[in-house]
Amino acid sequence: MMEKMIFGRYVPADSVIHKMDPRSKLIIIFLFVCIVFIANNAITYGALVVYTFLMLGLSKVPMRFVFGGLKLVFILILFTFLLHIFLTKEGPVIFELGWFKVYEEGLRQGIFISLRFFLLILMTSILTLTTTPIAITDGLETLLGPLKKVKFPVHELALMMSIALRFIPTLMQETDKIMKAQTARGVDFTSGPVKDRVKAVIPLLIPLFVSSFKRAEELATAMEARGYRGGEGRTRYRQLSWGLTDTMMILLLAALTVLLIVFRT
Amino acid sequence: MDISLKNVEYRYQVDTPFERLAIKDVSIDIPAGTFLAIIGHTGSGKSTVLQHLNALLKPTGGEVVLGDKVITADKKQKNLKEVRQRVGIVFQFPEHQLFEETVEKDICFGPMNFGVSEKEAKIRAREAIAHVGLSEEILEKSPFDLSGGQMRRVAIAGVLAMNPDVIVLDEPTAGLDPRGRKEIMDMFSDLHKQRKLSTILVTHSMEDASRYADKIVIMHSGQVYRTGTPLEIFSNPEELIKMGLDVPEVVKFQQKLERAFQRKFSKTCLTIEEITEEISSFLKRGDVQ
Ligand SMILES: Nc1ncnc2c1ncn2[C@@H]1O[C@H](COP(=O)(O)OP(=O)(O)OP(=O)(O)O)[C@@H](O)[C@H]1O
Ligand SMILES: [Mg+2]
Question: Could you list the residue ranges that cross the membrane (chain B) (predicted)?
Fold first, then answer.
């Protein structure tokens, strides 16, 4: 069950998106998160959808894999959608069944907000699927570099992030392993009454915590043993390089922004 | 409980870019009471095979017969609990599964999941802890205060306390000291003899494989490369060495001796006792100067 998770997973491939500079990808994601909120009608949302799927297509990550991995997210989105349908009571009634009424505004908001949510998740997934954690960190550190002047701990933040990203798959593997070990000892994680299933989480979480803490400690020791002393004066093995594609991609996003502003109502 | 694998295939992460064929066309028969050793390089699929033995993994092809249960790719299986009780697995580095406040509770955890009463479970815990060579005082301690080797033993005790008919061991002695290894292996061997437990052992130690097993399976890149008794397997050491696998020290010694004296012994010896006998009979006959 853990196998299908896509969070924090990097899928190597030879694509335009993979080759982009992590800085441009981060800038694009950041701007995208902002401009998503400009959209407010069918045309503008349509443009966002087209753009997102274009990016997904360019990334060459198999769609089936991406959507398979987002199953859990779909449930959340469906939940958001239903909340809007039930709770928004504005505009004309478009559907009625006994006491249950669906209002036009509810449907509209439900669709748009779920869509917004979906696009945001998809875009950030494209980022993590096509960029190694190290690259993301390097990019972030460079982009936030100016903040060092005001004593903002940029390097530490970037390091924390990359460690977190790096260990997501490890944690998944570990979870899978411990689940199997406890299943072999008679724990049933997948069926049975809810009460039992909640109880089944304890034999999973405790070993997971224990090994995470142990791993953190070992990692810290290993880093210190190899002379890590924070970001001060640290040189870099991988150099970032901004290419033509990066500029083009930024321009494409700018064009999308203009389009959104023009067509919003 | 008889176990048999028929043309089993398993793919990890089906339908993702990471899909990977781990084992294919694996057929192994394990009648009740067998001591089977599985050897092979790292990554050859040994652990994957083991996980089929109590339905933790469902084959993506072929079938796994566990007693009267048949497990295939498309059949939904219910009630695997019984199988899981009868087949106890000691995973690679089982100490990671400990979680209770005390060792005793942790050992009782398995049996109680399978419906054994607390009183009975505690009796079993006492038995099991003695089996793995720890003293009863340890029962009151927290499992996290133990040394690595002690944790390993507690984890093994936790599986023994389930009273399985089949015990599956994935490198149970990896990382233990030589004496600990021998103690643990002798204990499994005794259990196998006394209780007629089927035992399936994955190991990198050719010594253990030749000393304890009735039957050896060699895995190579996801397939069964060869099956046979220890004698059959090790009487052709060149082949194993060519594959990059080790052979028991005794066999190596015999090979060197034979080469040095340009003579063949009458049989392949697997134990020190056997080879001592061979050599002394050679010497007595005065064949060798
Ligand atoms: N969860 C997983 N996802 C993807 N591939 C896996 C997974 N687990 C194992 N594999 C792959 O399946 C193959 C067989 O792995 P397996 O763990 O069975 O090997 P093994 O013989 O037990 O090795 P070792 O001696 O190192 O324990 C390996 O090539 C491994 O990369
Ligand atoms: Mg293994």
Answer: none
A220-240 tens-digit pLDDT: 999 999 988 887 778 888 888
- Residue A67 class from Cβ within 10 Å (0-12 exposed, 13-18 middle, 19+ buried)? middle
Residue B259: count of CB within 10 angstroms of its CB: 9
Q: How much distance in Å is there from the Cα of B157 to the middle of ligand 1?
A: 26
Each domain of chain A, given as residue ranges in start order, spans 2-131+241-263, 147-225
Rounded to whole angstroms, the Cα distance separating B82 from B54 reads: 10
Q: How far lies A30's CA from each of A34, A49, A143, in Å?
A: 7, 17, 12
Q: Alpha-carbon distance B4 to A166, whole Å?
A: 40
What residue ranges define each of the domains in chain B, with the CATH number in brackets? 3-247 (3.40.50.300), 248-289 (no CATH)
Q: Which residues of B touch A184 (CB under 8 A)?
A: 54, 56, 84, 87-89, 91, 159
Contacts of B158 (CB under 8 A, 6+ apart): A185, B94, B97, B98, B106, B107, B109, B110, B128
- The phi and psi torsions of B35 (rounded to 5 degrees) equal -110, 105
Query: Partners of B226 in the beta sheet?
Result: B218
Burial zone of B90 (CB within 10 Å; 0-12 exposed, 13-18 middle, 19+ buried)? buried
Strand stretches in chain A, DSSP E = 93-97, 100-103
Predicted complex: ipTM over 0.90? no
Instruction: Report the residue of chain A nearest B91, measured CA to CA.
Output: A181
Q: Which residues pair with B166 in a beta bridge?
A: B87, B198
What pLDDT shows up at residue A257? Answer: 94
B175 pLDDT higher than 80 = yes
State how far the Cα of B276 lies from the Cα of B280, in Å rounded to an integer.
Answer: 6
Across the interface, of A178, A186, A188, the residue whose CB is closest to B96 is A178
Chain A residue set in contact with B, beta carbons under 8 Å: 3-4, 11, 13, 61-62, 64-65, 68-69, 174, 177-178, 180-188, 202-203, 206-207, 210-211
Burial class (CB in 10 A: 0-12, 13-18, 19+), B284: exposed
